[in-house]
């Protein structure tokens, strides 16, 4: 009797992740797609971190930030993808209350940290291109560590506030989350609490996270473009634009999807799931490809590592 009571209580506190509303036979296709993308995320980001840590030539502020970007991408995609794949593969779509809290907390922490880290990377490129002679002094190791630590700290504070605020809501109407992971907006939809204050605080949090970081990025790149256009060397212009365009591409995809998910009114749940894919899986998969295929130093370091392995074999 005690076991049955415990089981019933567990079922009452579990959430159900609906995932994508597709025919059951397509679930295996979604599983294989997620598996392929997640494998590319693991390979790309672990590979990028390995290359950066093993090659002394990449011991610079830019690659320090890139290594942390790969770590963040790897971590928050790992918070989402494995659980989603389990839901696609098995008939069980449930996630425990503690699991849901943990998933939301970790995802919010790392997605916010990535936003601040991208702003730090934009500032780094601004100093490197606009003030190259002062770059070694201004972008010191101490400042780089402070910027990265600050990104994680802001992510942690934001995540604590968001998670604690979300899970003080009452979920008496339903425990079925119309999404493939635990996120704030889908949880709001199934809450029977008054959401007015919750939405105000959420919008405020989005504002103080998105606005400062996007302003730093835009202003930095306005100065960068102005400086690059004044360069006499066409090769220098090409190299600068190549480095910065890849960063801007990542920023555009990430922030475009986040604005759609958290700023625009929540009227299209299925489109929200597609937008979520952009920053939970697509961006972490593309980041290593963009920064390695368009980066001469990374490609040379990778060739060096692969060359050593071939020789040892």
UniProtKB/TrEMBL annotation:
<keyword id="KW-0675">Receptor</keyword>
<feature type="transmembrane region" description="Helical">
    <location>
        <begin position="143"/>
        <end position="161"/>
    </location>
</feature>
<keyword id="KW-1003">Cell membrane</keyword>
<feature type="transmembrane region" description="Helical">
    <location>
        <begin position="63"/>
        <end position="81"/>
    </location>
</feature>
<feature type="domain" description="G-protein coupled receptors family 1 profile">
    <location>
        <begin position="44"/>
        <end position="291"/>
    </location>
</feature>
<dbReference type="InterPro" id="IPR000725">
    <property type="entry name" value="Olfact_rcpt"/>
</dbReference>
<dbReference type="GO" id="GO:0004984">
    <property type="term" value="F:olfactory receptor activity"/>
</dbReference>
<protein>
    <recommendedName>
        <fullName>Olfactory receptor</fullName>
    </recommendedName>
</protein>
<feature type="transmembrane region" description="Helical">
    <location>
        <begin position="200"/>
        <end position="224"/>
    </location>
</feature>
<comment type="function">
    <text>Putative odorant or sperm cell receptor.</text>
</comment>
<dbReference type="Pfam" id="PF13853">
    <property type="entry name" value="7tm_4"/>
</dbReference>
<keyword id="KW-0807">Transducer</keyword>
<feature type="transmembrane region" description="Helical">
    <location>
        <begin position="271"/>
        <end position="293"/>
    </location>
</feature>
<dbReference type="GO" id="GO:0005886">
    <property type="term" value="C:plasma membrane"/>
</dbReference>
<dbReference type="InterPro" id="IPR000276">
    <property type="entry name" value="GPCR_Rhodpsn"/>
</dbReference>
<keyword id="KW-0812">Transmembrane</keyword>
<feature type="transmembrane region" description="Helical">
    <location>
        <begin position="245"/>
        <end position="265"/>
    </location>
</feature>
<feature type="transmembrane region" description="Helical">
    <location>
        <begin position="28"/>
        <end position="51"/>
    </location>
</feature>
<keyword id="KW-0552">Olfaction</keyword>
<keyword id="KW-0472">Membrane</keyword>
<comment type="similarity">
    <text>Belongs to the G-protein coupled receptor 1 family.</text>
</comment>
<keyword id="KW-0297">G-protein coupled receptor</keyword>
<dbReference type="InterPro" id="IPR017452">
    <property type="entry name" value="GPCR_Rhodpsn_7TM"/>
</dbReference>
<dbReference type="GO" id="GO:0004930">
    <property type="term" value="F:G protein-coupled receptor activity"/>
</dbReference>
<feature type="transmembrane region" description="Helical">
    <location>
        <begin position="101"/>
        <end position="123"/>
    </location>
</feature>
<keyword id="KW-0716">Sensory transduction</keyword>
<keyword id="KW-1133">Transmembrane helix</keyword>
